[in-house]
Specification:
Strand content of chain A: 35-45%
Radius of gyration of chain A: 16 Å
Number of strands of chain A: 7
CATH class of chain A: Alpha Beta
Order of helices and strands of chain A: HHEEHEEEEE
Number of domains of chain A: 1
Oligomer: homodimer
CATH architecture of chain A: Roll
Strand order of the largest sheet of chain A: 2-1-6-5-4-3
Shape of chain A: globular
Structural class of chain A: alpha+beta
């Protein structure tokens, strides 16, 4: 599988709560980091707990796009739950065996643009 | 140039305020969108104005990583100015001529993680 295909399978498994498939796509010593919260998770077992237990409630993931090369990729998803829909961006690194070794995760929230840009953009 | 190389040249030109090179990398009818603010800029001329005038002060861009395929890519950068350093994520689409046709831009801010994840992650 290409890096893009691995990432597509990762999100499909997450959305299906298929933690066995999900775990089979990440390396045993994988590293997850969320720079916004400075959260870090080390290793497949801890990462499975984080995903299975860290996001309670009923949620759904829709993949907006995936781009990637031989051993890396990035995805843009929409995470929807009872609170609404949130965009999520992940960067992935893969090992030579095709397993995901590193995930860097971002959740960008809406904000108001600075006043000086008002004449330079449209709003939608 | 590969999509990754085009994106590397795009950030180098932005950091150098080399708007001529910067403009030569984007299509005349390019589309920029920032989903967090719902800002949109259409076309090369407006996009050059947005970049030259929308970000006043002295700033510096450092590329953390770029991933990409034939006609798309994503970048993670650090934007530093007098206010500090901010991570930025962009997704790029390129045309068959190698010019950037579409940019989707995210600026994820720090936030506090929910309490239920405390036992599931380390903090760094």
């Amino acid at each position: 599988m290409s890096a893009k295909e691995v990432v597509a399978a990762y999100w499909a498994a997450a959305d299906a709560r298929d933690w066995e498939t999900f775990g089979s796509l990440v390396a045993g010593d994988m590293l997850y980091e969320a720079p916004q919260t400075r959260e870090r998770v080390r290793g497949r077992a801890a990462y499975l707990r984080f995903n299975a237990d860290g996001f309670p409630g009923d949620w759904h993931i829709e993949v907006d796009r995936i781009t990637g090369g031989e051993r890396d990729a990035a995805s843009l998803i929409r995470f929807s739950d009872a609170d609404g829909t949130q965009s999520g961006v992940c960067f992935f690194e893969l090992g030579a065996d095709g397993l995901i070794t590193r995930i860097t995760d971002f959740w960008p929230d809406p904000y108001e643009p600075p006043a000086n840009r008002a004449g330079l953009t449209e709003r939608y």
